[in-house]
Amino acid sequence: MARAITLLSGGLDSYLSTALARQDHDVILALTFDYGQRAIKPEIKAAQKMAKLWRIKHQVIELPWLKSLGNNALTNTRTILPRFHDAKKLKDKKATEKSAEAVWVPNRNGVFINVAASFAEGLGAEWIVTGFNREEAATFPDNSADYVHRMNRALELSTLMFPPKVKSFVQEMDKKEMVQQMLEMKLPTDIFWSCYEGGEKMCGTCESCVRTLNALAEN
Known about the structure:
The chain has 9 helices and 5 strands. It is an alpha/beta fold and 219 residues long. It has a single domain, classed as Rossmann fold (3-Layer(aba) Sandwich), CATH 3.40.50.
C-alpha cells in the first residue's frame, strides 16, 4: 500500500479527500499549516479530531512570515472579508472573483505543497493528498487539475530519492457532490471547519461557509 501525506486544513475538502485516500493508501502524516489565518484555532482543532479518528500522526507547521505578505482578509483582520448573504451570489462570477482576490495569500498552496514534498521525500511517501476541487478551481487557479499537473512536473525535478506526486481525491467534485459522498461514507458531519473566521461557530456568511451550507441544504 502506497504511503501518503495529507494537507489537512480541517475543512470539508481535505476531510473527504483524506477519507477517500485512506481506502487505498497508508496515510502516515497529516500536516496543518499555521500562517496566521483567522481560523487557525478551529482549523487545528478540527484537523486534530480527524487525525485522532483515523489514528494518523498530526503535525502543525508554523509559517509566520506568510502572514506578512499581502493585505489579504484571511490573515489581516483589518481587511474586509467579503460576505455572501444569499447563496445565489455564488453564481455571480464578479462577486466570487472579488472574494478570491480578497482572501488570496501569496503562493500559499505552492508553499504548502513544497513543504509537504520535503516530508514526503524524507519519509518515503509517494503521494501528497490535497482537497483541491472543481468548484473552487473556477476562481482559485491553484485548485485546478492543470495546477496539480504542473506541480507534479516540478516535483520530479525538485526531489530526487522519492519524487512524490500531488493528488486530490475530490478534484472533479463540487461541494454538493462532496457532501453527498461524505454522507454515503457515513463520516462524522460535526468535526470539520469550513469557515474563514475563527469564532466559536462558523460565521455562515463568508464564501467558504455559504458554499458548504448550500451543499448541505442541497443534500
